[in-house]
């Protein structure tokens, strides 16, 4: 990926004043090669937006895949996180989780869809997240199935509250989820303790299958770090967007 053409892309920085969060949230919006306001595009909404762009190199990956491998052009929206409140906003039992979901559905979506030609159908919205970002993305689908159906989960932090929620769902056949987990993620340290993410993802997969989901589930050698996720991101993007 040394070819300079992969770095010639447009990333627009936006700021959204959120009533629900009580603060301003920074956004970055990737416009694909050949972007035309008269066309419409699927949208990828990334939790931990700054990390997806800087450490995941999602814009570079997308540009290469679009130019060289026939990936369907998409608009990518990186939603920056307020790190001190990340757990409170992304965890389903966090004190700001409800406010974050309201922000996402009632402020972020209209903001983007008023300014960019993204398709508003659930099949054309992809929620992407790493760790707890994968968790909040999954819960957004569970809580707003009329808005979202697709989740790209990089080592999702599917802790007991998420497991319990999934077990309560009668049918999740509408869910389209791509799950990546590293085989070295057996002792992941978090603010709430150390967890075996590998086992939790395996359990989540089994529950989803019982709920009529056919998840794309990949176990690859890797740790709970962006160095692992970055290498695997092109395959995940291709799953959702390869023409």
Key terms:
243 residues; Rossmann fold; two-stranded antiparallel ribbon; 38% helix
Characterise the protein shown here.
It comes from Marinicrinis lubricantis. GO terms for molecular function: hydrolase activity. It holds the Pfam family Esterase. InterPro entries: AB_hydrolase_fold, Esterase-like, Mycobacterial_A85_antigen. This is Alpha/beta hydrolase. The protein has 243 residues and is α/β, with parallel strands linked by helices. It has one domain: Rossmann fold, CATH 3.40.50. 38% of the residues lie in helices and 23% in strands. It is built from eight helices and ten strands. An eight-stranded mixed β-sheet has the order 1-2-4-3-5-6-7-10, sandwiched between helices. A two-stranded antiparallel sheet has the order 8-9. Strand 1 and strand 2 (23-31) form a beta hairpin. The longest helix has 19 residues, at 97-115. The chain is globular and about 45 Å long. The model has no long low-confidence stretch (mean pLDDT 96).
List the topology elements:
Elements: E1 10-18, E2 23-31, E3 43-46, H1 49-54, H2 58-69, E4 75-79, H3 86-90, H4 97-115, E5 125-130, H5 132-143, E6 150-154, H6 160-168, E7 176-182, E8 188-190, E9 193-195, H7 197-210, E10 216-220, H8 226-241
Parallel strand pairs: 3-4, 3-5, 5-6, 6-7, 7-10
Antiparallel strand pairs: 1-2, 2-4, 8-9
Helix pairs in contact: 2-8
């Amino acid at each position: 990926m040394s070819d300079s053409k992969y770095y010639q892309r447009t990333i627009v920085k936006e700021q959204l004043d959120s009533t629900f969060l009580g603060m301003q949230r920074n956004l970055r919006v990737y416009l694909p090669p050949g972007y035309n306001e008269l066309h419409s595009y699927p949208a990828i909404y990334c939790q931990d937006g700054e990390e997806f762009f800087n450490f995941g190199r999602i814009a570079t990956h997308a540009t290469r895949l679009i130019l060289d491998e026939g990936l369907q052009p998409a608009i990518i929206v990186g939603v920056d996180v307020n790190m001190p409140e990340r757990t409170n906003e992304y965890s389903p039992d966090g004190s700001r989780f409800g406010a974050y979901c309201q922000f996402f559905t009632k402020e972020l979506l209209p903001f983007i869809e008023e300014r960019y030609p993204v398709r508003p159908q659930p099949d054309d919205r992809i929620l992407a997240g790493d760790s707890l970002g994968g968790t909040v993305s999954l819960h957004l689908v569970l809580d707003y199935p009329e808005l979202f159906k697709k989740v790209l989960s990089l080592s999702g932090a599917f802790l007991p509250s998420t497991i319990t929620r999934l077990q309560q769902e009668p049918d999740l056949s509408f869910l389209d989820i791509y799950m990546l987990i590293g085989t070295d993620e057996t002792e992941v340290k978090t603010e709430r303790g150390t967890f075996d993410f590998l086992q939790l993802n395996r359990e989540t997969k089994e529950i989803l299958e019982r709920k009529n989901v056919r998840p794309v589930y990949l176990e690859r050698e890797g740790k709970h770090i962006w160095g692992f996720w970055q290498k695997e991101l092109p395959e995940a993007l291709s799953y959702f967007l390869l023409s």
